[in-house]
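#struct-help
A.M.: can someone run this one for me? Single chain, 430 residues.
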Amino acid sequence: MIDRYTYPEMKRVWSEENKLAKWLQVEILACEGWAAQGAIPPDDLAAIRRASVDPERMAEIYRESHHDVLSFVRTVAESVGPAGRFIHLGLTSSDVLDTALAVVLLEAADILAGDLERLEAVLARQAVAHKRTLMVGRSHGIQAEPTSFGHKLAVWVAEVRRHRRRLAAARETVAVGKLAGAVGTHANVPPAVEEYVCERLGLRPVEAGTQIIQRDRHAEYVLTLALIASSLEKMATEIRGLQRSEVAEVAEPFSPGQQGSSAMPHKRNPELAERVCGLARVVRAAALPALEDVVLWHERDISHSSTERIILPDACLALDYMLRTFTHIMDQLDVYPERMRRNLERSGGLVASGRVLLALVERGLGRQEAYEIVQGHAKQAWNDEADFQALLRADPRVRELLSDAELDALFDHEYHLREIDTAFARLGLE
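D.P.: on it. Structure tokens below:
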């Protein structure tokens, strides 16, 4: 990821320094576990606890070995001296890699969980503030019936809450470690060592594993990130649509001195929302290789390793940026209620067609006949830019069933907010 699109916390989680620190932590804890079994003398364990890793020395060894974990183990062993013979005792590379990766994934999930919590809070605040801010609802991009901007945001609050639950579940799924040797049988490393390490890392031992932790766990994690990214893209697309010049009902933040176009000084583009939409493609693109990584030969192959080195950090880094960016958009969003009202009135009352249809049916008219009457006047109003209510009022078939006062009431947009509190109550929004 490009540095400008990352935040320090998530960048640290996926740094080389943090990765090596986690590898070293696993190796030292494994030696502690072995020591508890009487396999490592106390003096040697004391030396092992002072172990360190020199990235330059590791790189030097790697140029010869072409194996990152072997290079790491040799570097750490050198830092320990004679006690270094106990480093990596009974382990295979994936014991270290997968257990350390689990801890990294938990750290990343915790950052993303905080991002989601902050986004929910901002959306909830804006939803309550605009609970009764009338605007036209749209389906297929066409004006439908009135809604409120707050109701639109309440829908997003519910969606973010679902993602918080999904992320918590995915975090639980990957919160496992494995130190069971070359094919997962514990032949060369006792289960007690695995249990010791996992307990101190906040992990559970896998119930049963091969040389690796099975990749359906990681796929669930990445798919959760992809789902969150898709929802963010949906929300950002809505902001983009509402910011279009012809709509102009909201606008993302635009700081003093900011410029939207090198050629057109009037431009105020939704470039932050567009950035969110673009990065959603990056996160979703990680889903397919994550699924394909589930399929490995026998007790393992290494085809998953190369892809994970790209998709896991990139997906987490991108989603962290997306969540923080969209939270900023919604926190500082400019909302234009008067423009919403003007757009609502722009159709000349056509948004009341559904209520008129229902009223005519309730007065005894057949639904098809009522539909044809209302649709006919709606077409004329649209084609001729005429007043829809006036056309209905002039129709004797309508006048016979509905008085002027009753017809006026059908065009009262506040009617559509009469149950607006329901969704807010269900969400616990005050």
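A.M.: thanks! The radius of gyration is 30 Å.
D.P.: also worth noting: The chain has a mean pLDDT of 95.
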